[in-house]
Structure formats: structure tokens, C-alpha cells
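Record pair follows.
FIRST:
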Amino acid sequence: MAGQIQQETQVHGHGAPTMTDVGSEQTVVREPHLLTALLAAAFRPALAARRLDRLSLRRAWLLHVAMTLVFLVMVACIAEAGPEFDWRRVRRLPGELLDYPDELLTEFRLRPALTVILSVVIPASVEFGFVALAVVLAPWGARDEPLRASVASALRRVWMFSVVAFWAVLLVTAVQTAFARAEARYESVHPPPIWPGLQPPVQPTVPPTDPDYQRLNEEWAAQMRAYTDATSRYNQQWSAWYSKKPWYLRSHGYPLATTLGFLAGLWTLVTLMRAVAAPRSSPPIVRDPMCEACGYNLTGMAADARCPECGLGVVDSLGEHVRPGTDWERCPAMGRMRTLARVFVMSETRPADLGRQIRVTGGAGAHRYYAAAWMPVVFVVAAFGILFAVSAIDEWQSFWWAPDVGIAVCVSFSTSCVAGALLVMLGSACMVGWWISLKAMRNMWPAAAQIAAYLAGDLALWAMIGAVIGVGLWNWSWQPDGLRQAALAIGMPPQSLFMGLFFLPNAFMGGRFLVLLARGTSAARCANR
């Protein structure tokens, strides 16, 4: 191990250098300035996270509030500029901001409850959301340390990385502005057809015995034919005009910009996860050696002895062969795909054995790459699920009519499902790890995060089952003698029957995920390494 130990001495201050001694070589790593680290947080989260860890929680929160105010001013400027992004309108914004306190006081006199909700409750709820997000993300970067240290580190990094929202909004706004300007320029050169303003004629309601009955109906039929012909001509003109538009301007709603919005949200979540998981220096906790089976203190016992509580050999708890890491972490010669399948089967059938393999105090982070390997599966399953659900309505007609909209819907829905899977994984690890920490009297978030990551295959399986059930129920609901008739037969509203049949299997899969996670995490509660 000599020559591999890194000794770091840090000089506090902006852009402070770090001396690293590896063997006989010395290198100077100059860390970025604080402002540079903030601006680069969205692109180099690990580097920025290490630089920002020097700030106290109070300073981190104050800097977060300052960045939030800058973000709100930026959003106000974008809203004031309008869809055409005319910056000349932004000149009115400083005056409006100066008048805001007087307007707020006036509103408070008229509607005090609503004003308090808008000015106090909503900002407090947003800040509470940041704290809740930090708690959910805390297991992802937790170490063998007190729980409060894991939460404090995650909270500091979540506050600092709120600047990522600046880049996400800037990206989406830039794309939407480009679309708005491009469409305005195109329609100025190629104006769309104008609807003639005709209204459908009203059918006469005179009785057949009326002498004018036949004449009025003939006039109505002639007006109806003229209205139908005019509508048909307008539709043909509009279709011809629409087909000549560039592909990125078709389909109202800017599908590409909408897709970028969902992708920007996923990008923000992944950046936060990378920031929270970035390495950080903290003194290791010195623990007494424990029995892997029952947690009995093995201090002073010989290697060939047995635990007096459960009879497990001491070498089986403290030997070099104990907790070697998972097959995925050790990179066996069988290949990545076979290892992926092998770990998936173990996580589904023997989660406790998986929990006895992981290293709680010295994990290398391989579990994060394992979880990332399953997210494309969730993405593809969600995309095909929404496609087949749409096919039940019009048999792919809407997709072929506007393929850009179909692709945007698929990507947006799939991105949401991936983000949901990540949040389920993190939230479950937070809840289960905290519960087992209370019983084990140590921080079990590192173990829970690893087991949850190795259960990412179960999340992909859950997505497959949910897609099959959802598509099947959706197709059944559109059949004449399908869901509605079944609901009437048992005396239930169709919506309630649909939600019940969809919710119960998903609730079972969610409970099963928690059980597997709890079994794997419990098996690591007495880990020595």
C-alpha cells in the first residue's frame, strides 16, 4: 500500500491549490474559483461539488437564495420579452420591480390570506422541497458516517446545484425562441390560408305540415353543401401549406422544445445525483469488529474461534474472503451481459446473499453503473408502451399524420418514466435505509443505496409488467363490449375499475421491491468493511 497513499494539504481560499503526493511524484491540482465552480456545476458536477464542499451550510443557503433570485429575475425577463424575445420590452422590468412592494402591500390590504400564501407559503414550500430532495438523494452519496452528516452533505450540494436549473431553463427558452422566430419568419413569407369565416347553417325546425317546410329544407341543404365545400377547400389548402413547412415547424406546440424540457429535467436530476455521489473527505468511523450474523462484538477473539452468540466462525466475519464485492464489481471474465443477468437473478431470488457481498464502508461505486445500465431498458419499454396505447385509439393514424409529435410524446413519456424509476430507487433506499439504521444503530444508507441500485433490474421488470397491464386495459377500455360493460356488470364506475386493475399489480410490485431492498440491506447491517 506504500506509494499508493495520497496525502492532501489544502490551502483555503478561492482557486486554492491542492498538493498531492503519489509515490515520489508531486502534482499541483488547482481547483476552480467559486464562481467558475458554480457555472460549471451542470457540466462537471463532481469537480464543482468538491470545490463547494468548503462552504458552510449557512453560506451555501445564502448563495442558493441569491442564485434563486437571479433565476427569478431571468424568468421575469424572459416572460417580459414575450414569445418573440424582444429585449426592448425588458426595459420596463426595473420599474415594475420597484413598484412590486407597493403592489404587494395593496394586495395584502385587499386579500391578506392570498397574499401571505403567495409571498410566504409558496416560497417556504419550495425551500422545503429542496430539503426533501436532499434527504431523498442523501443515500446516493452516503458514507459510513452519522446520518446527519450524509443529509448535510446532500443538502449543501443540492442548494449549490440549483444553478443547474438556470442552464435547463436557458436551453429550453433558447429553443422555444428559435422556433417562434423561425415560424414567424416562415409565415411572413408563406402566409397560412385564412378561414373564410363561414358558420354551419342551422337546420330549420318547422314541422312537416308547414307550407314552407320543403323550401326551407332545400335552402338549408344548399347552404350545407356550400359550407362543406368551403371547409373541404380550406382543409386541402391548409394541408398543402402544412406539408411544405419545414419538419421542425410542424405540429403546434413545438414538440422538439417540449422534449428538450423533459430531457432537461432528467439532466438536472442526474446532475444532482452525480454531485451528491462525488467523493468527499471525511474521517472514517473506527468500529469494533462484529459478527456478520448476529452483530456480537468480536474484539480480542482469535481467528480460529467462533462467535459465542451464534457459533459463526470469526474468520467468516473478519477474513479476507468476506464481502468480496458483487460479481458486477469484480468484473468477471464471463462478460458484462452475463454478469448483468447473474446479478439480476441474485437480486430477485437471493437479495440477502447480495447484501452479504457488498462492501458498506469501501464500495467503489460500481452499483451506480449497474443502475445506469438498466435505465435504457426502462426508456424503451415506456416508449413502446405509449405507442401501443395510442394504436388502440386510431390504429397509428395520428402517429403517421404527425410523426414528430409521436416521437416527442414517446421521448417525453419515457424520460418521465426513467426519472420516476430513479426517484423510486432513491426514495426507497432513503426510507428503508433510515428504518434499518434505527435498529442497527449505524448509518445504513450506503448499503441501502447499493442494494437499491442492484435492484434496478427489478424496476425494469416492473416497467414491463406495468406497460403490459396498462396497454391491455387501455385496449380493453376502447372495445365496445370491454371495460365499460364489465364495470356496469359489477356496479362500478369504469374509471374506478380501470384504476383498480392498474393500481393493484403496481402496488404489489412496489411492495415486492421494498421487501427485496429490506432483505438485502438487513444482511449488511453488521458489515465490517
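SECOND:
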Amino acid sequence: MLSILLLLSVQLPVGPHLPARTMPEIHAINIRVQELLKESKFDEAAEALKSWPGPTIRYRVIDSTGTGLGENAIGADKEAANVWRESTENRVSFEVSDDEQVILEFIRTAPPGDNLPKWVDGKLHAKIALGYGEPRREMPRRSVIMAIAKAFGMAIGHAPMQRHGFIMGVDDRLEMVGHVGPTSAELDNVMHLLEARERLELAIKTKTQLTPAKPKLVMTPTDVNFGIIDEGDKPRAQIMLKNAGNAPLEFAVDASCRCLYLQTIEPLAPGETRVVEPGVDSTGFMGRQAKEIYIHSSDPVEPTQSIALRFESVPEYRVVPDAIQRIALADDGPTTFEIIVYSFPGRAIRVMSVRANLPEAKTEILPFNGDVVDQAFSKEPIRRTGYKIKVTFLPEFRSGSGFLNLAIETDSHSRPLHHVTLQTQKGIAASPPSAYFGGIPTDEKTSRSFRISHPTERFKIVDFSLEGGPFTIETTPDDSDGFGYRVTVTYNGGHKGPISGQITIKTDHPKYKEITVPLTGHTR
């Protein structure tokens, strides 16, 4: 008799499994209901199923703005409800109720940090922001509708995604065009969830026992270190996926970086295994990197697992500094600046020539063997071998601010030419070099600012004047050391047509007694 009972229990039909992108709270409800059905506790199963919103989702709206909802929010909940009602052909509906399952709390401005709806005491609480940023900007109505639709989708059971352009994706604050609706993948997930819930309702109604559906993902390895690779390489890993559960295992994939890729993973039947090959494109990456691919599955216990892909990307050679450098030139005499070009062991390259775009800068290529601090690879000095490029700015180099471009020619096959940009300043200069107003309203007061400074010496503004237009000028020290000033030019209105003029600033510096800054724009 015992053996017959055991056989019957084994042959119980397996309950419904849920799709890969499912809320953990809904996974838990699904398994709990199925466990109760297995034990023939049908009344308790019916009570447990009530915590899974649907097929009629009850919600309540709370206004916490303190200023009223406004036209971007009024009726947005009904439009969001229609998104899912119409897409599912009335398989799910929504009603306002004091016995709510979803709370939509409208707030004035989006707070920093994670603002996703959250399950609290069995209810989904969603904060719907009607503004964002500082100064505050109004959230477009379509964005408000999308945010509410996402909350309703999470109540049905669909988990959020880190993708733009999806209802369940990252919140977009741009005015959208066209119809707001789910993608085919989002709709498939929601329909799968609704069908699973309907099957549980039927099992309760017909008093049918079920074996809980528990697909289980076993993934090895979950941490892959590719070691040192050449920058630009695209290594792949081999990851074994196994379904150690009793129901189909379905998959969806996200990644922490666009440099990662992984083919679509087809579902795994119980007991089935498959090898997948995630990879990384190291183009543009240098130094030690750690990226993650997120595997979402229908495993109810661990619905999201990750694969860590680590590597150290090493280019054929490095140029330090590797970003635009600001060079303060001496008022009198030459100024020198040094650039280091080094290669890694086994990747030796030669610097063939260096060309400067200005004749007042001379370059010299010298051998180098010494310590280099390269933040891309280490914060500590490391012994490197290569070349030192000595750049000499001659005394006749132009005053003011500008740029020097260097073209470094090497015998590298992958990157034979490397460009370096140096930003120079000699003496007192304005930044930006002009007061540009663009197109401004004729009768609207408008201000523009620029900074005048000397890179190494203190000075004072002793006088200033302006030619052209109804403008006023104000100067204030930009730092406590006397190296710079902030100059604010204000258009006071009343001028029609082009704006053209010149600001003249007089200083007490013995060499730079007068600085001129052009003023341009037009009124409309």
C-alpha cells in the first residue's frame, strides 16, 4: 500500500513554472501555493494565492506632492492600466480600491538612488515622481504613464530590466513618441505569468494535487579570469549550464557593459546541460577590468545569477600622460614638457618621429629607462623602458591660451600613429576666449561669464571698458591667491540685431597690461 502511495505522489503533475524575468516575491507565492496543493490543503492554497495580484489588480492613489497632481499625472493611472488590459485582451484588469494590492504614491521630485517599486507587507509600493533634477523639471506625461505601467507589470510578476525603451526597463525622462505598450518579449512574460496563475486557480477549484515546479540552474564556472590579454582581443569563456530541477529552465540575459556578449540561451529541459560561450570585447579598455553578465532564469530560488569576466587589457604601447594636459608657459624664456612612451615586455615598439603643428614648439626623442606612474595600471611607480619625448616651447611661443598637437609615429602595426594634445597658456588669458551670447530675446536680461587668469603669477584688474551694446560688466576674484578673476557681462535688453563689441581689461601686470575679449551674438 505504501509503495502505491509513493508511486502516486511521484506521478503528480508538475505545477506551472514562471518565466526568467519574474519578481522573487511572485516566485515565492507560486511555490508556496504549489506546496499546499501537493498536500491537498486547497483552502490554504486559495488564501495564499490572494497575495499574487490578479486577475483584477486593486490599487490606490496617494498624492504626496503637496502641490496637486497636475495635468501630467491626472488620469495617468487609467492610461497605464489600459496598456496592460488591452495588450492582454482583458486577461488582467485594474480597479481603484481601499483594499489595495498596489499603492501609487505621487511625489514631487525623484529622490536619488534606487526608486524601483518595492513589496512592503504584501503590497507593492511605487513612488511615481512628477519632476526631476535641480532645478526641477516636469516629468513628461508619457514617462509618468510608463512608470505606473512598470509598477502594474511588477504586480503581475514581471521583474524590472536594465534596458531603455522597455516598459519594464530603465525609467526614461524624454518625451516619447508613438504608442506606449509592451514589447513582444514583455508581453510574452506577462501572458506566461497570467497563465501560470490561472492554472493554480484551476487546480484549487478542481482540487488537483500538483508537484511544485522547481527548475534549478547549476552554472560552472561563475568566475572567469582571462588573465593578461592584448587590448582589442575578444576572448570567450565556456560556461556549463545544467537544469537540475523538475521543470523547464528559461533564460534572459543582461550585462554590466556593452563590451560583453552572449548568445540567446534556449530553454533547458529537466536534466539537460548545455555549454554557452560568453565573451568580452576589450577594445578601448586598459588595465584590470571586472565585468558581469547577469543570467536571469526561471529558477525560483536563485532567479538571478552572474558570471564574472575578469581580464587585464594591455596595449602594444602606452603614452603618458594619456589625456589633454594643461601646460603653463613661462612669460620669458623656454618651457619644457616631457612625454613618456613605453611598451610592455614582449611588445617592444620604436618611436620613429614626432611632429608638432606649430613651429614655436620643438621636439626631441630620447631613450628612457625609469619609473612611470600610469594610473591605468598602477598607482605606484613602475620601472618602464621606452622613449622620452622632450617638448620645448620657445620664448616666441604665442601668448594667451591655445592647443599644441603632436603626432607620434611608431613602427606599431596596430597603432602606428598616436596623437597628443597639449593645452597651453602663456600670460593672462580669457577662458572661454570670447563672451558669446548666441541668440537671446531682445528684452530679456541675460548674462555670460568668462575667467581671466595667469597660470603662475598674481595680478589685479585696475580698470575695464566695453564697446558696443547695452551691457554692464562685473569682476570678482575667482580665487584667494590672486591668479584669476571671474568677469560677468550682462545684456540689459533693448538692442535689436547683431551684437558686436569688445571688452578691454587693464591689469597691473608689467607684461600684460591690457587684455581684449570679443563680445558677439544677436537678439531675436
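COMMENT: The mean pLDDT is 91.
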